[in-house]
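Example 4.3 (complexes with small molecules)
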Amino acid sequence: MSWQVEPADTYRRPEERPTRRIEGFAVAGGVWATAVPFPSPLAYSYSYALRYPDGIVVVDLGWDSDEAWQAFVAGLARAGACLDEVKGVVVTHAHPDHYGLASRIREHTSAWIGAHPGERAQIRVGEAERGDRLAEIADWLRECGVPRSLLAELDGELRALDSVLPSVEPDVELHDGVPVPGTGGALVPVHTPGHTAGHLCFRERERNMLLTGDHILPKVTPNVARRPGSDPDPLRDFLASLARLHRFADPGTVVLPGHEWPFDSVSHRADVLRRHHDDRLAEVESAVARGCGTVWEVAQAVSWARDFSAFTPRSMRSALAETSAHLMRLGEGGRIRRSGGQPERWTVAAR
Ligand SMILES: [Zn+2]
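Answer. The structure with zinc ion bound is encoded below.
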């Protein structure tokens, strides 16, 4: 079977056909991207298969469902490969839309699975660890000041979350700058904490590619969340990680994200995201100055792409975590102050 390679311009602009269901695309250099479906407005995440002399290394997996697994296996076939050829899997981070198929990989292949050790906090092995995770999130919602009347609804959604919590421990720890095994030194992790504490991008040196997971996407602003398991000031980490990407500003570098579509100016996109967060910080600070004290109150006072009150419980949790990350950044920068207690409250710092 042949390895499909198509010219770069065949995959550049799928956003022009946003409703078209895609199965994946060939990337120049013998890389195949499989679109793995998952239940979200983003519709699918990408799993990238990269061929090396010793076999295939996969970057990111996808959601755990029968449909997703079928898409993953069919994508390998389109790449001219089969499951037995997959020698290793690396993940940008351990969210269910990138890591969910880890249990099926373990069941059906002998491939090793690699992730940054910072992702371990998201992986819960066994019932006790899973119960702890859900309890941590429930406590955190109270700390955010979510009204009692809504807590029951959010708790119900948490029970649904239990079924998708990642539960497979990786075999291999990946670290910044240390090449991925089985790639001849070509695939190198770049630690980019922010979206998650152990988030990795991967630099493919031979093919001049940068695989960015959810650290940087062409259109959607990645969620930067302060919640149980995150670093204490994830927005500081995220902004520093954006700055790290400027060294990959070579316009010839193909950027392969975890969702949406490939693009080619990582620096431009990093600048747009940095400005977005600057604006957001100003908006959050102004809400606190107007007397919004809890994460819940601030989240309702700032603007969102959709009406906050119409958010699903899952989107609401993301919005609270995003707001909390901005509050913490302002707090660490000395702009606002946090008082203890439950819920936590923020006020403008005296100057
Ligand atoms: Zn994702």
